[in-house]
Amino acid sequence: MAFETDLLEYADILDGSPVIAAKVKELVEGARAEIENVEAQGGIVAAIESGYIKRELVGSHMNRLRAIESGDLKIIGVNCFQETAESPLTLDSDGSIMKTNPAAERGANRTSAGASQEP
Prior knowledge:
The protein is mainly alpha-helical. It has helices spanning 18-40, 44-49, 52-70, 102-116. Helices cover 53% and strands 0% of the residues.
């Protein structure tokens, strides 16, 4: 795609995107708020010792699992797009992509056997 388009002419194709900028701002603000919260508890060691860090991690994981189970967070192959179409490469077969014609295989074996017997 890089050779067929002008994508390589831009340092960052998402630079200036209001959607990306808003997401970055949201992430930075959340991170700053969490850092301030940990600092208010006396630092990371105190936050670990008090159980705060573990509670936050477990709570975050629980919220993520709930969102997956409810369908609010889509995870391909887990809660959406779990069914797949039959592959045209293996359709109506035993699962292999290509089978050799037995007659052609026997002919090839005779030819290679004859070639190996030459003086």
